[in-house]
Amino acid sequence: MKDLSQKKQDYARKQVDKDEDNFRMDNQTFWMGSSWLARQFYLNYSKLLFILRKNVISKNKLLQLIHLPNLEENLMVQSTLEIYESFLHGFGQKEEFSASDIYAMIKKTFRTDFILVHTFCILEIVCKIFNSVLIQKIITSFQDEYSEGSSTYTMTVIYTLILFILIFLALNFRNKFQFLIEQNSTQARQGLIALIYKKIIQMSQHQISKANVGKLFNMISADLMSIEILMPYVFQAIWAPLLIIATTVIICIRLGAYGLIAIGFILIVYPSQQILGKLQQKYFALKNARSDERVKLVNESIEGIRLIKMYAWENTIGKQVDLIRVKEQNSIFNIVLNRAADRAFSNAMILIAVFLPILAIYYNDDSQKIDLNSAKIFATLEQINGLKFMLILSGVGIGFIYQWREISKRFATFISLKDQQTQRVIKNPKYSEQLEKLKSENQNRQANNQETKLEDTVKIDPFVKYTDQENSNQNEYPKTTNQNNAIEFSADFECFWDKNEKKQEPCVKLGKAVNFEKSKFYGIIGKVGSGKSSLFQILIREMPFYQGDIRLNGNIAYVEQEPYIFSGKVVDNILFGKEMNQEFYNKVIEACCLKDDLASFKQGDQTEIGERGITLSGGQKARLSLARAVYSNSDILLLDDPLSAVDAKVAKQIHQMCLMGILKEKTILLITHQVHFTKQCDRILILDQGQLIGQGTFDEIKDHVYQIEKNHHIPSKEINESQNQNERQIHEEEQNKSEKHSQANVEDINLDKQEDEVNKNNDDENNDLFTKDQDEQVQVSIKTLFRYFSQSNGGLILAFLSFIFFASAEVLFTFFYRIIGSYDTENDKDKLFKNAGIILIFYTLATYLKYFSIAAVTYVSNRKIHRQMFSHLTRAPVFYFDSNPTGRIVNKFSSDIGTMDFVLFFHLIDCTENPLTFLNLMLTVSLYNNYFFILAGFYALCLYLWLIYSKELIVQSKSLDTVYKGPVMSLFSTTIQGVVSIKVYKQINTFLNRFYSVSNDSIRTNHWFYQAGRAFSYNGQALSSLVTFFGILIAIYTSSNSDLLGQVVVYLTIIIELSNYLIRQMIQLEGSLTSVERVLKIINIVPEGPLKLPSDQLLVKNNELIPSKKNQQDHIKWVQKGSLEFKNVYMKYRENLNYVLKGVNLKIESGEHIGCIGRTGAGKSSLLQALFRMINIEKSALNDSKTGSIIIDGVDISSIGLNTLRYNISIIPQTSFVFSGTVRKNIDPLGLYEDSKIFEALKLTGLFEVVNNLEQKLDTDMSNSQSIFSVGQRQLICLARAILNRSKLVVLDEATANLDLSTDKLIQSAIKNQFSGSTIFTIAHRLNTIADYDKVLVMSEGCVAEYDSPFKLLVNDINDNEITSQSLFAQMVKHTGKQNSQIIFQIAKDKFFKQSNNNKEKI
What we know:
Elements: H1 4-18, H2 27-31, H3 36-40, H4 43-55, H5 77-89, H6 99-109, H7 111-147, H8 154-200, H9 205-211, H10 213-223, H11 225-255, H12 259-303, H13 305-310, H14 314-363, H15 367-370, H16 374-415, E1 423-427, H17 429-447, E2 463-465, E3 485-489, E4 494-496, E5 508-509, E6 514-517, E7 521-525, H18 532-539, E8 545-547, E9 550-552, E10 556-559, E11 568-569, H19 570-575, H20 582-591, H21 595-600, E12 608-609, H22 618-631, E13 636-640, H23 648-662, E14 667-671, E15 683-688, E16 691-696, H24 698-711, H25 716-727, H26 732-748, H27 782-790, H28 795-821, H29 829-875, H30 878-883, H31 886-928, H32 931-963, H33 966-984, H34 988-1038, H35 1042-1083, E17 1124-1132, E18 1139-1148, E19 1153-1157, H36 1164-1171, E20 1189-1192, E21 1195-1196, H37 1202-1206, E22 1209-1212, H38 1223-1227, H39 1235-1245, H40 1248-1252, H41 1271-1285, E23 1289-1293, H42 1301-1314, E24 1319-1323, E25 1335-1340, E26 1343-1348, H43 1350-1354, H44 1368-1374, H45 1378-1402
Parallel strand pairs: 1-8, 7-14, 7-15, 10-13, 13-14, 19-24, 19-25, 22-23, 23-24
Antiparallel strand pairs: 1-2, 3-6, 3-9, 4-5, 4-8, 11-12, 15-16, 17-18, 17-20, 20-21, 25-26
Helix pairs in contact: 4-34, 5-6, 5-8, 6-16, 7-8, 7-11, 7-16, 7-35, 8-11, 8-34, 10-12, 10-31, 11-12, 11-16, 12-14, 12-16, 12-31, 14-16, 14-29, 16-35, 20-23, 24-25, 27-35, 28-29, 28-31, 29-31, 29-35, 31-32, 31-33, 31-35, 32-34, 32-35, 33-34, 34-35, 39-41, 41-42
């Protein structure tokens, strides 16, 4: 059962959506009746607290953005960003910015407010300085008037009134200072984030990868967040010397030369803080490097979570993350220990600084000379105590100053990166001279049998920037010399990723001039890694360097080989910032074959699609990306193999209606591995290893094409297949009517009406794919703390010990004050100082223990929590990742974990220490005078009622603030992933405006949280001031001696200082606990199932395990045959959605090769989801009483662990997945195989030479894999993984769709040879690939429509010599064209009779 708070929260969320009379705040309502004077006392925010309490909280609603006042223009991020940019532009062409430049920029931006902040800070210090003087006056005046027998205590009361005025003024100055700095820190932080975003959106994907995505996320969510939290303390650190100087003067006047002893100890504190701050800076730099690495790996893991699960890598990736985390936490722990030592030292030194001068005065018999009495002692205690608070806060500020140096260095380094300006370079003549000189020296060395030097020893760049006077706009290529040309390449053109890499070969080196004419259709072909995509990369200015000349005439649209789809509506992805032209839009939908897809979506083109298009099939993503390009109405279209992701029928339709239809007046460059689509091209270019080896019309170069295919060992039959595929275009006009008739027949059997297996489930009530922002709002309570401590073994015990140390320190503190304050009344001074000294020693010990114990408990808890957090994340069902944006999840690993690592430590100290001190002081004062029980009771009741009244609103304000930081992170993630499309389609301003919107929402919620806290804090402090004033008045008229009065006055003034800090830190603790609760929310995710079960060991005969290496966990190899059976399998993606698999029954014998086909949404990928248990199947469904199950080698896969299942199935996915790390780690992340085995796998995949030519070979870092491997080569890495694993059950999920025929042949050959005897299950669009398989499975609407040998599905009788069947498979084969369908028929026939003969021979 849900607890009451959870029920209340659920109810409130419903009201957010359903309540028609939702309260809205506007600025007119907010400012109405708020005069200037009222605003000085925060009555406007107090009024808003009341309004929101009445209209939101009391009605059980959740606080929302609409309830808050709008931002004023000067607080918006655009305003701050404009000033920042103006300042940076003032540096002109400065190459690199420094940390001091960033500091100067912030200082200039907020100069006026900072001057006010300094002013208010100084005024508060002045008030504090005179507080101790007035306390001495109050006690002295009381002694005089008491001895005179006065009953009015006029002067004492006057001094008390003046003290109250000073306290109230200090209270106002402090709140003014905090109000301004909180407002400015938020603006400063968001402005810096805006600078980063504006930099990122203008960078290339290559640059972003080199900049380290993890570093970017950490800067945004952790580093810059510290500005908001810690900036107020910097001003305390700046003005702490002023208070020290003033305290020095006053104490020296009060205690004479003995005051220098106190000052000496105080002065030790400030330089010690500097030393500890420098140490923190050192550890902070180490921590940043580890944090960047960790967050980057977490981000990659989230993006590749499906394949991580399928590869059974959860534990392996978890260990890598944990290893980085341990190193990171070691640095963090050192920082926290330094901060704990600083705080403990400051606390101890303050009491020592009071004790030693008094002790020296007494033992030197100077008590009479100095006139030492309780009044001076208490005044000194108050003076020193006020300084203690300032020094503690300044210690935090000094630590942040050194921390800021590292943050600003990182920020300045990133901002100094040049925007992606694709540079034209020329060979450096000095480099050539040095190279010739080196070669000559090496010849002499060889002659003398000396070691030669490598080319790397030449410390000169091989290329230098070419200054192009013609092209003044560095963001565009110059116009073509011939207006009839769309693109022009010079003969000496070549392009590459790094101009300083001496050994690198150009990615593309055409070798001859190439011109692309306007309104022409060009085909670009070549094997994997031949440089086709690289040619597009330089055209869209993603590749950074080129030599020679490129000229362009027209706008470009680009369809990526791995299309990126933005989260949002279908229509928004197509329009992509363009205005709606309904007539043209409908034509684009028709031409890109999206009409049926949109009809199948219940929301049509208003359907929400998830991040990276997770709710779409590969074909739908390709067509959607194509529709975006077509709708852009650009002059030049760069199409990187968009037809490979769709089946033959759809590819043909797109070719006819789109490429040859709606785009016939455009310049088209089509990269394709399906050569038959190039027959109608005006010109074809053939690339090999980056060089242009042939060009011309199809007829002119067809022999050349065939020769290339021969060089890649493609049999003559398949050469003819390619030829025949192209020849089929001749018959298209003749066959048009018959094919339409055939197509109609297919529609009659619902082939074209099959709904997408995911998108069909977008019903009206569940159209929002992502969980809403308000779902991220959490409730915090004391239970949150208990759950936090209980996450680690012994955490609660350690927390309890910490509490004991804190309580002990408070008791010792009280005794010290009581003993030292009884100086006037205690006759045995030796005993007094002896007891005080002993208590001081134990107090110092308890102080160190309480801080170090808190540091220890947070370290232990955070370490365990992060390990559990990542473990539970990787174990979460895939739907969690579908419904939560990557940026939101990464934010929890960056910002929330950062808060727990650093901020929570301080808040736990303050919110443990200060309440105990507060309670201790109130009880002590009350025990001195019974009248104080009444006052304390009244004070406690008022504070409690005010807390109850405001707490819920402030907690929700912080939760709302945290929630609205999420969209900023999500937009960063989206932008980083889709930056290519954003730039190509010139949507930078659109995304900038979107960023401004989410940033201003974040500032708006953040600003309100701080101001709500300010109103709450101010009123609480004002109440404390009044209680102090009346408390002192009560003490004056009821105290019997000055000692009691002195202690009461000092304690009550401490209470004021304490209440200010306590109230603020309690609000901040709510924020820290919100981060804890958000993290625990991930830990509370219900996992998809156990990775291993004890019974899994029973599957293995003779305890056959993969040998353990490098402490890797043993992996069970239990599949010996590879037989697979689906029995009555039903599956749905969510509980309240429709079935995507409907009673699937399928049996695959050991060693069979099965090809699975079907239109988009037929259920093909759903079979894999069920097989890998990514989604659990229904045990029974509808009116079917049969139990559903999937059986492998006689074992029900639901009865074994997930890793035990998944490790025994090898998968080669459609989209390759590589992560940061070496080539070796990417191929063998479990560390189970020797290098010789890895190289053997690379040879089998054709990657051996590519990897062997890399300087670091298997140790080459793949963090920026784009510049090392092509998309096809990354796919071959996935094949190498499968070869190493050598499973008896292998799955190919359209693995060769993006590959050329030769690479496809290579993979098919490697699979057949390396997995001989294994069961192969292939999802394919290329029907030729599966024509010689044992059986073909045709899926239709989640059901098995057909399942038999390919030949049997093509004929009515095995003696037929042509396709005679009307099966779905036969219809699909016919759609590939008459000639190609005959080839498929012959391959299937040969396979069938060969298999039949083999079976007869066995019999």
